[in-house]
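Page 42, continued from yesterday. The earlier attempt failed because a stray header line got pasted into the input along with the sequence. Redoing it now with the clean sequence only.
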Amino acid sequence: MATMKTKQVASLVTMIVFAAVFVLMSAINASASFGSISDVEVIGIDAVDGSANVGAFAGQILPIRVTFEANENATDVRLKAWITGDKDLSVSTERFDVMEGSVYSRVLSVQVPYDLDPTEDLRLQIAVESKNDGLADETTINLAGQRESYAVQILDV
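This time it went through. Structure tokens are written below.
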């Protein structure tokens, strides 16, 4: 009798493991459904691998070129970029359609907050998303926040 219960428990555990693997694989496939970011340049600096710590001054407008490859056809795609902690300064491209096997490049300009604290970690978030297909890919770029050495600004009264 004990061996029958052991077999039932073993088969139940096996079914749960297979279900978990199936759900995990589905989530991985869904996360990069229609494209992936292949290159990011911030102020002309190649920063896609996250190893660059791009210097960014308070109030500066950062030109960002994002290149991505479409793995599938998708409609209403846009690129979105923002500096962490300040979604008010997020920007996005116009919506456009992509075709499987094509490479796309778009330029965005994100403003660095004037009131940044140089001691805090700043990150530039970039996402490729579609109205219909959701998030395709995203990446994070490290920024080294700085203030101009000789600029006089009244920050608070």
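Notes: The CA atoms of residues 58 and 151 lie 10 Å apart.
Reminder to self: strip header lines before submitting.
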